[in-house]
């Protein structure tokens, strides 16, 4: 592969091509190589990703990843039933927890979204709601500039989630979620991860 064909790719010491954002630290590299873009089809898994995406808003994904263990410990491993039972006292404990991102609105949103996730079970559940918005086609970007930040499907999914009581679910954040859980494949065409999810040929 000629790296000059893809200006946004970095060839690692292992000879593999990754976008620059995934080549800066071992943590981001491992996340990109093993997790980002792979299908997530469990309620707990999607609730965790939805929660982490909401905490990332306005911040770096690297920061969220560094605190992921803290988030999991603080939010009962993102068990929706457990988080749905959090009360004001739990919120105050979270606000005093240095292992997470301490943003009151985002913490309240995660608790609210846990309750919305539990309530949604009677109407098909979070997994079905999210994956029912998978598009018929996926982007085929050669450069980062060719990757959209939102789509008609992310706009529709954001609207559906809001109607179900979820918060912090704007169409741009939801598109990032769709990328992260394999609903769309926005790996650059010459990345070694392109097509790895098995969802898209």
UniProtKB/TrEMBL annotation:
This is DNA-3-methyladenine glycosylase I. GO terms for molecular function: DNA-3-methyladenine glycosylase activity; metal ion binding. GO terms for biological process: base-excision repair. Zn(2+) binds at residue 187. Keywords: Metal-binding, Zinc. It holds the Pfam family Adenine_glyco. SUPFAM superfamilies: DNA-glycosylase. It comes from Corynebacterium marinum DSM 44953.
